[in-house]
Amino acid sequence: MKIPYLRPLVGMWRREATQYVRERSRLVASIVSPFMWIAIVGIGIERGLKPDLGSGLNYLDFIVPGIVAQALMFTTIFYGVYIVWDRKMDVLKAVLVTPVPRSIVFLGKVVGGATQAVVEGTLLLIISTFFVDILWLNVVPAVAVILLTAVLYTSFGLALGSFYESFEGFRITSTFIAFPMFFLSGALFPVVDLPTWLTWFTHVNPLTYSVDALRSLLVGGQQAFSYLTSFGVLAGYTALATLVGGWSFNRMEA
Questions:
Q1: Number of other CB atoms surrounding residue 94 within 10 Å
Q2: How far apart, in whole angstroms, are the C-alpha atoms of residue 209 and residue 216?
Q3: Rounded to whole angstroms, how far apart are CA atoms 11 and 108?
Q4: Is residue 27 one of the residues assigned to a domain?
Q5: How far is Cα 142 from Cα 69, in angstroms, rounded to an integer?
């Protein structure tokens, strides 16, 4: 059975993949930056402060899954800058005047960006074995969490990028959004006994559920939410981000 618009969808994915392979510095930077967080922040706090997390984990075990989730989020949110770049170079205009629906163009970019993030996330899991003992029996559901997180934030980043025509505006806004989500996700410290308004923020923050699920799956940390809740929330946010992203592409002027 012939799937409608499969060829243009695959074509968009190949374009994004080819661009990624050619920019090897992106892959290096996406791996080195999380490695610095683990090696400097993780080992530094573990050796210097020896925090009591009350979960049976040392700080290095605690932080590694959070840094994997952080790397996924930052890589995919900032992926939206390529929409701004394509508009500057008139590449997007050439694509959008074709008979292919804009929703297919958007999905092609989502698949391309998410593929890159999953590759980077998998490499980070492998590198993490030098610091912590990974529970490889849980790798399949962990990759599912990585995939959902990647699609969610790629869609969000592309939707955000469609509203901007300058790199500066996009970077300021995306950074303003990304850092609070990171710091209040439980990636660096337990999100317990916080003020009510911060607790509310952690519960509506989708990255919280990614971090919680990955920590439990990868190092056996105590769960704040059940797997069903984490997967359900991530799936719901992913569907919402995809719908909003498709709508933003349809209203966008090339």
A1: 11
A2: 11
A3: 8
A4: yes
A5: 11
- Dump pLDDT digits (tens) for 133-159: 888 889 899 999 999 999 999 999 999
CB 64 within 8 A of CB 219: yes
φ, ψ of residue 201 to 5 degrees: the values are: -65, -40
* 150 class by beta-carbon count within 10 Å (0-12 exposed, 13-18 middle, 19+ buried): buried
On whether the pTM is more than 0.70, the answer is yes
Domain count along the chain:
1
DSSP state of 98: S
Please choose, from the candidates 86, 250, 228, 97, the residue with its C-alpha nearest in 3D space to the C-alpha of residue 170: 86
Q: Which two tokens stand for residue 254?
A: 């090339």
Q: Please answer whether residues 79 and 158 qualify as being in contact, where contact means their C-beta atoms are separated by less than 8 angstroms.
A: yes
Assigned domain for 1 exists:
no
